[in-house]
Specification:
Helix content is about 75%, strand content about 0%. It is mostly helical and about 120 residues long.
Length: about 120
């Protein structure tokens, strides 16, 4: 798809669910259920778009999520006075917010293309 969107509503729904998941789960320990839920939502959000930048942001969310919901992967991210889990949660939320902003950019581009097409069609009449 030229404008990068298949289903904006689906992408936004999964973005919101991922954001809620990260806000509600502290991480910092092995949690396969939370990790699988995050990965499932990320896959579904990625399937709703055809945009390399958006998919890259979601891939980063997956990677950080694997560290966050592991037994010890989060420890290397610790920075005084912030725990590794809290640092990763913030990184994930930042990536998710960038994904949300990217969705907005795709909508703006789609709307601009639609206006140009309508204008061109009007001129051909």
């Amino acid at each position: 798809m030229k404008n990068g969107l298949h289903d904006l509503g689906t992408a936004r729904k999964h973005y919101s669910a991922m954001r809620d998941l990260i806000i509600r789960h502290r991480g910092g320990s092995r949690d396969e259920q939370a990790l699988e839920k995050l990965r499932d939502l990320s896959r579904k959000a990625a399937a709703a778009i055809d945009d390399r930048n958006g998919k890259s942001l979601l891939s980063a969310v997956d990677g950080y999520g694997a560290e966050l919901f592991s037994e010890s992967g989060h420890l290397k991210w610790a920075q005084t006075p912030v725990s590794g889990a809290d640092f990763l949660r913030l990184k994930i939320l930042r990536e998710l917010d960038a994904f949300h902003a990217r969705l907005f950019q795709l909508v703006v581009a789609r709307n601009a293309a639609a206006r140009r097409a309508a204008k061109n069609a009007a001129f051909k009449m």
